[in-house]
Amino acid sequence: MISFAEVNVICVNSCKIINSIRTVLYRTYSSGFNFVPKSAPVKESDLLKLKAFIENFDRLCVVTGAGISTESGIPDYRSEGVGLYARSDRRPVLYKEFCNSEAVRRRYWARNYVGWPRFSSVRPNTAHKILRLIEDENKVRCIVTQNVDDLHAKAGSRRVIELHGTAFKVMCLDCDERICRYYLQEVLDRLNPDMNVTTSMIRPDGDVDLSQEQVEGFKVPTCENCGGVLKPDIIFFGDNVPRQTVETVKYNVDRSDSLLIIGSTLTTYSGYRIALQANSAGKPIGIINIGKTRADDLAVVKVEGRCGDVLAKVYALIRRDEEKQKRLK
Ligand SMILES: [Zn+2]
């Protein structure tokens, strides 16, 4: 006969084992580019065209989307077969729902709290690192990213405009207070000492799945300055990009000499608008993406392939030619 205490020990141990298996599965999963859609091998002629594109311009405006972060193990929303929309029925929270419902906010923050350790520890991949190298060579006017994952900054890029905000800051809906997301995690830890859930799941904004039971009782703090409602500093679906951000992007596109779109289908208008502005000003457009984008018809060069793979090969070609030139001198 097994006692109640022994059953408890067995349950706790089983949970630990299941969590370890999940962690191992996650590592296996994320290291194999499982969130990256399949694509045909990259054509050599396309690589050479992209190389010429990058060499010819000195003030690139780079636009990046979720496709650049899939190689870091963060899935995108829309990719065929591997994106979140293809994998589950879950949709991101809408701005109005978040603002209007305390229950929605509690669920959001509980899930965001559990997903944070995993989400905040994701590292930049080859594509982010090569963009940083190109920026260091003074060829990049700005990087406009649609991602909220901070991976460009983690790779060392400095000229980054976060079009849809950042998951690493938290704002107050009622005053100008902005706090660091790491600080909020400490506050949430203190308020919810019994919340012992870990997850291996990850979404583009750090959201994870939790049961209603796990969400109920989760305590969400208010703004320390005014007692108002806290929201991650990201543009939710149904919300608008702030006018100041739109103007900053316009200003920088104006002063760039070309546009390079990486890992984005430009489905959202805030991204597509940048391609339209560049096109109407006669600035050449290049694209690296697996699958169609809204700007395909506007591009002078389009390369279908993994962002990291394509950029690494093109960068190697540029470097090889530079070395040759040096030797000839
Ligand atoms: Zn406030």
TrEMBL record:
Location within or outside the cell: Mitochondrion matrix
Domain Deacetylase sirtuin-type: 40-329
Record-listed E.C. numbers: 2.3.1.-
Catalysed reactions, semicolon-separated: N(6)-acetyl-L-lysyl-[protein] + NAD(+) + H2O = 2''-O-acetyl-ADP-D-ribose + nicotinamide + L-lysyl-[protein]
One term under GO cellular component: mitochondrial matrix
Named cofactor requirement(s): Zn(2+)
Binding site for Zn(2+): C172, C175, C223, C226
InterPro entries: DHS-like_NAD/FAD-binding_dom, NAD-dep_sirtuin_deacylases, Sirtuin, Sirtuin_cat_small_dom_sf, Sirtuin_class_II, Ssirtuin_cat_dom
Binding-site list for NAD(+): 65-85, 146-149, 289-291, 307
Active-site residues, record numbering mapped to chain: H164 (proton acceptor)
CDD domains membership: SIRT4 (cd01409)
Entry-linked NCBIfam families: PRK05333.1
Record HAMAP family: Sirtuin_ClassII
Similarity-based family: Belongs to the sirtuin family. Class II subfamily.
Protein's recorded name: NAD-dependent protein deacylase
Originating species: Ceratina calcarata
